[in-house]
Design goal:
The protein is α/β, with parallel strands linked by helices. It is 28% helix and 21% strand.
C-alpha cells in the first residue's frame, strides 16, 4: 500500500481549516503537520520545528487551495440488495458514494429481501456485498474487485424478533432501526408502543442503539389521503403532527427504559422543542435531518414529480430555516442522505412524470452522490462554515454509530485515524443531471440544481478511490460543464471492507477486504 504526503492550504484539523500536511501510512493517518502546506518542507526540514520527518518514502500530493476533509460517513443508506437490486445495489451505491465524498456507508435493514432482522439475514446481505464486488465491470480499475467504500450494517427491530437483537449486536451491526408506522414494504412491519418498550428493554441490556422512523400511524390514518398530483395535497397527508406525536411516544419510552435512541430524518421543525427538552433532561437521545430537507423546499417542488416524494416530506422554507437553526444549536446532531431509491417504474406507478399521483408513487430521495455538495453549497449561501458541514456529515455520524472508536477511528483527520479523506474544490461549478449520476436509476430531486463546489478525489484507507482527470472533476468540469457519465468507471478503484461495530466479536472483519 502506498504511503502519501498530502499538502493543502486548507485541511480540516481540530475543527478548523488550516495549512497542513497529512501523512498516510497503509490505511491510517500517521502524522499531521500544521503550519505548512508544502510536503517538501516536512521531508527536508532539520530545525525540529515540525517534528520528526517521515521515516519512509511517500508519494507527494500537493493540492494547493483544494480543501481536505475527513471522508463522509453516511449512516442512513438503503442499498436494497439482495431482493430489490434493480432499485439499488452495492456496486452502484458504492460508486455513487465515492463520487459524492462518502467513504463509509451504513446500510439500512430494509428494503432488501430478506430484511436484516436476524444473523442469518445479515450473512445473506454481507454475501451480497461480497458478490457485488466480484462482478464489477472487467474494464474498471477496481483493484482486487473490491467496493470503493467501507460498508457497515444496521439491524432491524420488528414485532417478534426481540431474541434476535443481541445476536445481531454481537455479529457487528451498529444499531437497530424500527418503524412506528407502515414502512412501505410488508416484510418490515412497524412496532406498536408496547413493542417499542419491549425492544428498548432488550437493547438496554447490552447498550444497543435504536434508530426510529418517527411518524404516528393514527395521525397518518386521520389525515386526508386522496389521489392527487398536487404536492400541497401530499403534504396534508403527512402533517407535522405525525412527527411530533411519534417523537413524544419515543421519548416516553426512553424515559421508561433509558435506551439509547436516535430519531431518524427529522423533517418537521416542530419536533425541535421536544428534542431540546429531552436533551436538557439528560435523556440519551440524538437526532438527524437530511440533505434534502435543508436544500429543497416545498415552494419549489413541482406538482406530479415523484422524485421529490419522501416520508416524512420536504416542507416549506420557513421550516427549513428552523432546521438549520436546530443544527447550529446542537438540537439536531447530524445530516444524512436517507438514500432511498427505487426503480423508475415504482416512482411513476401513479402516472408518468409530471402527472404522477403522489400517493401512489414510491417515497424516497436518491441523494448519496449529490447530498454533500448540495448541502455545502446551501451552507455557503447561509454563511455556515464548511467545517460545520463536515462535522454533521462525518464526525458526528461516525460518533453516532461508534465508528469514532476502534483501531481506525473515522470522521476526523488526526494521527491514528482512518486514512479516509475527501478532496473538495469549493470553486468548481456544475449543474446536476440525474442521467449522469452513478445511482442505478436516473431519478433525482436535485436534477437541474446548480451547485458551487465539487468532490474531486476520495481517499479510502490511504488509497485513492475516486479521482479526477484532465479538466474534469467528479461533479462536472471546472467551468461548469455536464457531469461525468455514470459509466465512466476507469477512475474508481476499490479497497473497501465490510466493517463491524468496534468492540464486537465480529470486529475482526474490519481487517478483511469486502
Amino acid at each position: 500500500m502506498t504511503d502519501r504526503l498530502i499538502g493543502s492550504e486548507r485541511v480540516l484539523v481540530e475543527g478548523e481549516l488550516r495549512p497542513a500536511v497529512v501523512r498516510t501510512e497503509d490505511d491510517r493517518i500517521a502524522q499531521v503537520w500544521w503550519g505548512t502546506s508544502d510536503p517538501d518542507k516536512v521531508t527536508t526540514h532539520d530545525d525540529g520545528m515540525l517534528g520528526a520527518p517521515p521515516a519512509r518514502s511517500a508519494a507527494v500530493w500537493n493540492l494547493g487551495d483544494r480543501i481536505v476533509l475527513p471522508g463522509g460517513v453516511d449512516t442512513h443508506v438503503h442499498v436494497n440488495e439482495p431482493g430489490r437490486t434493480h432499485w439499488e445495489g452495492f456496486t452502484s451505491a458504492a460508486r455513487a458514494a465515492a463520487y459524492g465524498g462518502v467513504t463509509t456507508i451504513v446500510d439500512m435493514p430494509l428494503n432488501s429481501i430478506p430484511p436484516t432482522t436476524s444473523v442469518e439475514a445479515l450473512r445473506i446481505k454481507q454475501a451480497a456485498a461480497r458478490a457485488a464486488s466480484a462482478r464489477l465491470p472487467e474494464d474498471a480499475d477496481w483493484e482486487g474487485g473490491r467496493l470503493p467504500v467501507d460498508v457497515a450494517f444496521w439491524g432491524g427491530a420488528v414485532p417478534g424478533n426481540a431474541d434476535e437483537l443481541e445476536p445481531l449486536w454481537d455479529a457487528g451491526v451498529l444499531g437497530f432501526k424500527c418503524f412506528l408506522a407502515d414502512s412501505g414494504v410488508p416484510e418490515f412491519p412497524p412496532l406498536d408502543p408496547d413493542e417499542l418498550v419491549v425492544v428498548m428493554d432488550r437493547l438496554v441490556r447490552f447498550d444497543g442503539l435504536l434508530a426510529v422512523h418517527a411518524e404516528d400511524p393514527a395521525v397518518l390514518a386521520a389525515a386526508p389521503r386522496t389521489p392527487s398530483r398536487a404536492y400541497a395535497d401530499f403534504l396534508l397527508s403527512r402533517p407535522d403532527e405525525a412527527e411530533t406525536a411519534a417523537v413524544r411516544t419515543v421519548l416516553d419510552a426512553v424515559r421508561e427504559t433509558g435506551a439509547r435512541t436516535h430519531v431518524l430524518h427529522v423533517s418537521s421543525a416542530k419536533v425541535l422543542d421536544l428534542l431540546a427538552e429531552a436533551k436538557a433532561e439528560g435523556l440519551p437521545v440524538t437526532a438527524e435531518t437530511c440533505h434534502h430537507y435543508l436544500v429543497l423546499a416545498a415552494e419549489d417542488v413541482p406538482d406530479g414529480d415523484a422524485a421529490y416524494k419522501c416520508c416524512p416530506p420536504i416542507r416549506d422554507r420557513g421550516n427549513q430555516n428552523a432546521l438549520w437553526d436546530g443544527l447550529r444549536e446542537g438540537i439536531l446532531d447530524c445530516v444524512v442522505s436517507d438514500h432511498s431509491p427505487s426503480s423508475v417504474a415504482e416512482k411513476v406507478r401513479g402516472g408518468r412524470v409530471g402527472e404522477t399521483d403522489l400517493q401512489a408513487a414510491w417515497g424516497g430521495i436518491s441523494g448519496l452522490q449529490t447530498g454533500f455538495v448540495a448541502l455545502a453549497d446551501a451552507a455557503r449561501w447561509r454563511g455556515v462554515p464548511l467545517a460545520e458541514v463536515s462535522r454533521w456529515t462525518s464526525t458526528n455520524t461516525a460518533a453516532l454509530v461508534g465508528l469514532d472508536r476502534g483501531d481506525r477511528p473515522k470522521g476526523v483527520i488526526a494521527e491514528g485515524a482512518a486514512a479516509d479523506l475527501v478532496i473538495y474544490d469549493p470553486d468548481a461549478i456544475a449543474v446536476i443531471d440525474a442521467a449522469q449520476l452513478a445511482h442505478r436509476n436516473p431519478v433525482s430531486a436535485y436534477h437541474g440544481l446548480t451547485v458551487t463546489g465539487a468532490v474531486t478525489d476520495t481517499v479510502l484507507g490511504g488509497r485513492i478511490a475516486m479521482w479526477w482527470f484532465g479538466e474534469a472533476v467528479a461533479h462536472g468540469d471546472i467551468d461548469g460543464g455536464a457531469w461525468r457519465p455514470a459509466n465512466d468507471v476507469e477512475h474508481i478503484r476499490g479497497d473497501g471492507r465490510l466493517i463491524a461495530r468496534p468492540g464486537s466479536a465480529a470486529a475482526e472483519q474490519d481487517r478483511r477486504p469486502a
